[in-house]
Write a structure and sequence with these properties.
The chain has twelve helices and 18 strands. Helix 1 packs across helix 12 and helix 6 runs parallel beside helix 10. The radius of gyration is 24 Å and the shape is globular.
């Protein structure tokens, strides 16, 4: 294994100082948004690194017919810079798809096309480098910069220096505790997270019985896809069982005022709340970011309706309010012990396979171990993050570390949502540049989330700008 410093003539090289202004780790939609927006700040030397050989976004769920849950305007740049050449509309223009898109009258675009759009951007930005797995980040006091070590598939390692680091490494699949012992090679393709569904889709469709766990959009899409593998006579394809801990298979909140929870206004309000209240709200607001689109729920209902014409019983079962409390291999299948929360009853299910569509959570990347003692973790081992998405570090570190989609506990339900992606990236970009590269709105919601005049809310103002409500202690 050899190690080398990046050469000044490489794409996105740091220039005479040998230090990048910004290095992004991970190239998912959020750091790709930052890369696209920083392309307009020519004075900044930036580099973005990702271990994958090329951009890919949730490849295990890119089935035909699935769409984004946010409008196309929530692309990488448009919400803060609609004139950017990296917009989705410009992508359509470059691919001669503007007229077909116009005639399709789509507001929510296919996931497969969103993935292709992001790959189009990533392949053209000189700051994006793939096959570059970051293996360590350390603070180099002599250089007054972070030292970022990354390696490629051929065994070569390189080291670059950066004043600022932005982590956009994404989140990790979450699987219920009872299923985790079954996530081994012996059960590959039969016990899996939905992130790998497309890889094993054909095999699952040929089994007798498949259980899907999780009431979010991914769970609904997997259940719907398996239902569509059942033939018209009802004999082919698997029996589909859909389990969820939530009390209902509920639609995602999509009212116009409800969506104002995905605005800078709500983030400011949320950040000003006590920690215990923030954590309570994240649990209570699951329908804001973990529900299912009305369209997908409607399609599932339509599939079941079609299969019951003439009195035929559907080869499917939907069970909300149910948690898996134990799981074990049983012959050529699996035995699941389940508990119904409202009835407080326990029952067993035998199935051929289990797809756990139980979401994702932020984790601490291993490459941070080299500087873990310099991060000011909170009592639960999480990042402490300010309004500019900067992580609290030891005062000895003059550089800055930022995170994207790791701030659910400090910024609220908008953390994983694409709607706020460009706004957050612009906020970070302005902080890194030390100037306003892109103007971001101070107020975007009609809703006043807190009491008028309280910290964290702009309040309700009259024509004179004075708060129009009396605030009593």
């Amino acid at each position: 294994m050899t190690e080398q410093l990046s050469k000044p003539d490489e794409a996105g090289a740091p220039g005479a100082s040998g230090v990048y202004d910004l290095v992004g780790v991970g190239i998912g939609p959020f750091n790709l948004s930052l890369a696209a927006l920083s392309d307009g700040a020519r004075e900044l030397r930036t580099l973005f690194l990702d271990a994958k050989p090329a951009f890919s976004w949730h490849p295990g769920l890119l089935m035909e017919g699935t769409v984004l849950q946010v409008p196309f305007l929530a692309d990488l740049v448009t919400m803060v810079d609609p004139t950017s050449p990296w917009s989705y509309l410009n992508y359509l223009r470059e691919h001669d798809r503007m007229f077909p898109f116009f005639f399709s009258e789509r507001f929510h675009i296919p996931r497969r096309e969103y993935d292709h759009y992001c790959r189009w951007v990533a392949e053209r930005l000189p700051s994006c480098r793939f096959d570059a797995r970051v293996i360590g980040i350390a603070w180099d006091e002599s250089a007054d910069a972070f030292a970022v070590t990354h390696g490629s598939a051929d065994g070569t390692t390189s080291r670059v220096l950066a004043r600022k680091i932005v982590l956009g490494v994404g989140t990790l699949p979450v699987v219920p505790e009872p299923l985790r012992p079954l996530l081994t090679s012996a059960h590959a393709g039969r016990v899996l997270h939905s992130a790998d569904y497309r890889t094993h889709r054909a095999r699952l469709a040929g089994l007798d019985d498949v259980t899907v766990v999780g009431a979010g959009q991914s769970g609904a899409e997997v259940a719907l896809d398996l239902l569509r593998h059942q033939d018209g006579e009802g004999a082919g394809g698997p029996y589909v069982r859909w389990l969820a801990r939530t009390p209902a298979f509920a639609p995602m909140e999509y009212s116009k005022l409800g969506l104002e929870h995905f605005t800078p206004d709500y983030i400011r309000y949320f950040r000003a709340l006590p920690e215990e209240r923030r954590e309570q709200l994240v649990r209570e607001q699951w329908q804001l970011y973990k529900g299912v689109s009305e369209e997908t729920l409607g399609e599932i209902h339509d599939e079941l309706y079609e299969r019951t014409i003439g009195g035929t019983r559907p080869r499917a079962a939907l069970h909300p309010g149910v948690a898996i409390v134990a799981a074990e291999a049983d012959g050529d299948g699996y035995l699941l012990t389940c508990r119904h929360s409202q009835q407080d009853t326990v029952f067993e299910v035998r199935t051929s396979a289990v797809v756990s569509a139980t979401g994702y959570a932020a984790g601490r990347p291993a490459f941070l171990d080299t500087m873990a003692e310099l991060v000011d973790w909170d009592e639960k081992g999480r990042y402490q993050i300010d309004g500019d998405y900067r992580v609290a570090l030891d005062p000895r570190v003059s550089g800055a570390l930022y995170v994207q989609n790791a701030e659910l506990h400090t910024h609220g339900v908008g953390a994983p949502d694409l709607t706020l992606g460009a706004w957050r990236a612009a906020t970070i970009l302005n902080a890194v540049a030390g100037r306003t590269v892109l103007r971001v709105p101070e107020r975007a919601a009609w809703t006043t989330f807190g009491a008028p005049g309280r910290t964290g809310d702009t309040g309700v103002t009259g024509a004179s700008g004075a708060v129009s409500a009396v605030v009593r202690p």
